[in-house]
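Q: What changes when iron/sulfur cluster is included in the input?
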Amino acid sequence: MKRIASYALGCKVNQYESEAIAELFAEKGYEVVSVEDTADIYVINTCTVTNFGDKKSRQLIRKVKRQNPQAVVAVVGCYAQTAPEEMKAVEGVNLVIGTKDKGKIVELVEQYQPEEGVCSYVTDIMHERVFEPLEIKKLANRTRAYLKIQDGCSQFCSYCIIPYARGPIRSRAPEDVLAEVRRLAENGFREVVLAGIHVASYGKDLKTTSLLDIIRQVHGVEGIDRIRFSSIEPNVVTEEFAAAMAELPKVCDHFHLSLQSGCDKTLKEMNRKYDTAKYRQAVALLKKYLPDVAVTTDIIVGFPGETEEDFRQSADFAREMGFSKIHVFPYSPKRGTPAAERKDQLPNSVKQERSHALIAVGEKLAERFLQAHVGKVMPVLFERAVEDGVYEGHTTNYMKVHAKSGQDLSNVILPVRILSWEGEMALGEVTES
Ligand code: SF4
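A: The predicted holo structure follows.
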């Protein structure tokens, strides 16, 4: 039996796709092994969100080829899509496939003859209009399932290469989404995370549905207790949207709302489609309808031309929003994007300094968020035992909780009183009240 390893670098969408690719091979009788093992076929789902992502992708390709010099190495994903010639030149690569046609991967690998050298199947993605279905039927973790409902992005933020890697927005048909959610529920999953490259755009291409529609429909699936989204944007959060979230009890009161900068000048230069006033309004609406809501975010520091004053505004805005977690990214120029062409790039030392300063702001806010929950009783969906008799799970507003129990709590929702916290972790006890 031939052995295949399918591995994703980068985001949750890549991880979903790599799981689905592994299943396609398994259905054809291949044995699925880890990327650390010796395999006959390696499928590497590359990431190109930063130049560092490119480097990691190249390193992994070389590593797997060293593990088995006879293996067929197929590279798929964003880096392969945007730089196919560069991929072809990486030693060890046999097939370059890009972000399209992943569903045909078994066929392409089986057809491959080593004497052909490196074969490239990368085609234009910028005019793609159809969502390519890839499904996951079996998952290792049986609590939370990521579900890809959308692909592509048409926002063209000035620092981001993803619209060129993934093409325009394409939404998965609602009936396909629902069929997969039902199957996940039948397999015991209690939580689904609706994921995509730009989930906020869900439905805009189909015109017959919207993000709110699909949330309502997923909400109707019996057996699913919790619904989350990978990331949304402030423009989605209207009064109607926030009110609807509060009326749908399965929707978790945690939203990842990308901010990227808390300075209007920088937001404009980033070509983000909102300003701080709009963002502030979105957070206020979420807080109005969901009093315990957690808002997490991503912020880039050291964007070209960002002055000390711009950075100060950004940090002040983050404090004002009271995020429960901030993912801080020092700006990294990405070839092929307008921001990378700018002459006013900042030195790494400035980016590092601002990054440390904003991480410190984020840590303070996270502590404040955890502290505010001490004494509260909250439902926790337990996922797994982390040590003997200690279980880990999450509240609806995405606090990670550890609690002791003599029983197996995996995949069980129980009320937990939050007693204290340590680092990013809340410590609690299971209670019946
Ligand atoms: S919204 Fe902006 S940052 Fe996000 S994938 Fe699209 S272009 Fe990139």
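Observations recorded in class: Residues 153, 155-157, 160, 162-163, 197-198 surround iron/sulfur cluster (CB under 6 Å).
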